[in-house]
Amino acid sequence: MNYNVNEKGYYGDFGGAYIPEMLYPNVEELRQNYIKVMQEPDFQKEFKELLKEYVGRPTPLYYAKRFSEKYGTKVYLKREDLCHTGAHKVNNTIGQILMAKRLGKNRIIAETGAGQHGVATATVCALMGLECIVYMGAIDIKRQAPNVARMKMLGATVVSAESGSKTLKDATNEAIRDWINNPTDTHYIIGSVVGPHPYPDMVARFQSVISEEVKKQLLEKEGRENPDYVVACVGGGSNAAGIFYHYLDKPEVGIIAVEAAGKGIHSGESAATSALGKEGIIHGSKTLLMQTDDGQITEPYSISAGLDYPGVGPMHAHLFRSGRGEFISVTDADAMQAGLDLCKLEGIIPAIESSHALAIFEDRKFRKDDVVVVNLSGRGDKDLNTYIEYFDLA
Amino acid sequence: MNRINKKLQEDKKLLSIYFTAGYPKLEDTVPVLEELVKSGVDMIEIGLPFSDPLADGPTIQESSTTALKNGMTTAKLFDQIKDIRKTVDIPLIVMGYFNPMLQYGVEKFCKACSEIGIDGLIMPDLPLAEYEEHYKATFEKYDLKMVFLITPQTSDKRIKQIDTASDGFIYMVSSASTTGKTSGFSNVQRDYFERIDALNLKNPQIVGFGIKDEETFKAATKTAKGAIIGSAFIKMLTEKGIEGISSFIKSIRP
């Protein structure tokens, strides 16, 4: 079976470009050009140089000795938390800003939930001297004040999304509306493997540097390119797409996607899309999403703002439906505990998103000689307030 | 003959009104419809509210949010308008986003529309390619006209594809915008209207987005067959309620 995107922009039953005609010229321009541009030697050179000199790649593949001992298996952490700006998000924004420049765009828009993708976008806009407008839900602006300040320091304009539930999905709607209103000079940097084709594929390709590095690094450390498992948290799913990418067609590598169960899958406050979602259309893509019986998109919940999305990228919907991926959901409580455990065992403070991936080891048992690579997608600095309140650390 | 095709043959400029079903009150759908007919409009687009209406500006978004809060659903709408053909004779089009239709079931949705006497559908996020490959046969089975949008950015080549795929009218979006955004028409729009007119398409065009008064209605229908008013009508409805409909329509087309 093919786990990558096909010519029509689908992953199995999922994907496509369900967009209003107003967006057609923009999306079509991108679709016709993205692979061609990405394959230009000049583009590759600039992209790789920036990833190395500016982002700080390759990020280490770190053998987590004490964590491994605790769970009786071999766990490696792919340290995306050490990227400039604190998470994997910047791999994609570097790629897309170079794409935007080559398409002659001089105005950049983006959506953000917790603010990580907004910061990563504002960063590359500052780097390239381009105008940057970031849409962020009014509620998120309140609860993520430090990232709002970061974006402003980097020169971005942060626009409050006041519609709907005033969170990530509404910020995405507002960014799309901006693009409709500015069809010629603007590029929309989507932050995850979501949205109309070609976005899911383009973002996955930019993030695929993660598994490209893992292959080389694991060969050095273990004498083989392929681990037994790769594990990543999934909101929209960009860090997961990045670490799964080069292993999609290697059946010997198990793929584990970890979703946020929030307060429990059946609590009514959850973001576990594979368990709770049905096939439908969100943000221009046919995928699994949380919705009412009447087809209205519902508001998800997770303690982690980065996993707080009612859909999942079409690649992941296909991995789920085809059975290629193993989907596990982790509650707020288990994720928070796993995050704190990593601090104490390895001296690494993980983002709460990444803590979800770390939390599976309590229940999901691996063999002693299994090599399990976990994508540590971001660092926990941005979550300090949540950690402080949750564990009463003040 | 489908009511849309028949109406388009009339020798006059058509005025079409969009309103959100279940707004301002849940049970206002039919009273609004009947008052619009009494006021002399030529065609009505019944908006099926959606939680995430990407192509709409704040006015229609807010009316959708209110309608959903009021309890509007697809099944509820079909129930409200099940006897509408006893009192209303003009073309009726359901306008909504694709996800609620998908969840209801595309065939079931089309069948319900056909039984009620709906003449056409506008689904802005159901693109031409998907429609032709997967849904065209079903729409046609129930004699529902799918109405496609074009914008100032749509290439002539694609406009011709859309013209070929359409049987009714083409919804001509007046400018690069979401609904309710523009204020009046500039030379850019007038050039665009004339460019489309010069293409001599087989389907007449009806202009939407940015029509709000007599002046913009006249400007839009100089070359086009008609015009659609949405946000401006919703705004009026919010302020004045159903009693305001007749004088609003008179102000557009005295």
UniProtKB/TrEMBL annotation, chain A:
CDD domains: Trp-synth_B
Pathway stated in the Swiss-Prot or TrEMBL entry: Amino-acid biosynthesis; L-tryptophan biosynthesis; L-tryptophan from chorismate: step 5/5
Reaction(s) this enzyme catalyzes, per UniProt: (1S,2R)-1-C-(indol-3-yl)glycerol 3-phosphate + L-serine = D-glyceraldehyde 3-phosphate + L-tryptophan + H2O
UniProt modified residues of type N6-(pyridoxal phosphate)lysine: K89
Protein keywords: Amino-acid biosynthesis, Aromatic amino acid biosynthesis, Lyase, Pyridoxal phosphate, Tryptophan biosynthesis
Domain spans labelled Tryptophan synthase beta chain-like PALP: 56-378
GO terms for cellular component: cytoplasm
Keyword Cell membrane: no
Keyword Transcription regulation applies: no
GO molecular function, one term: tryptophan synthase activity
Summary of subunit composition and partner proteins: Tetramer of two alpha and two beta chains.
Stated role: The beta subunit is responsible for the synthesis of L-tryptophan from indole and L-serine.
Protein family membership: Belongs to the TrpB family.
Protein name per its UniProtKB record: Tryptophan synthase beta chain
Taxonomic source organism: Leeuwenhoekiella polynyae
Lineage: Bacteria, Pseudomonadati, Bacteroidota, Flavobacteriia, Flavobacteriales
Gene name in the database record: trpB
UniProtKB/TrEMBL annotation, chain B:
Enzyme class: lyase
Pathway terms, separated by semicolons: Amino-acid biosynthesis; L-tryptophan biosynthesis; L-tryptophan from chorismate: step 5/5
Active-site residue list: E45, D56
A cellular-component GO term for this protein: cytosol
Short name of any one Pfam family annotated for the protein: Trp_syntA
Catalytic activity: (1S,2R)-1-C-(indol-3-yl)glycerol 3-phosphate + L-serine = D-glyceraldehyde 3-phosphate + L-tryptophan + H2O
Alphabetical list of Gene3D superfamilies matching this protein: Aldolase class I (3.20.20.70)
EC number in record: 4.2.1.20
Alphabetically ordered keywords of this record: Amino-acid biosynthesis, Aromatic amino acid biosynthesis, Lyase, Tryptophan biosynthesis
GO molecular function: tryptophan synthase activity
UniProt KW Amino-acid biosynthesis keyword: yes
Self-association state and partner proteins as the record states: Tetramer of two alpha and two beta chains.
Family from the record: Belongs to the TrpA family.
Free-text function comment from the UniProt entry: The alpha subunit is responsible for the aldol cleavage of indoleglycerol phosphate to indole and glyceraldehyde 3-phosphate.
Name the UniProt record assigns to this protein: Tryptophan synthase alpha chain
Species this protein is from: Leeuwenhoekiella polynyae
Gene that produces this protein: trpA
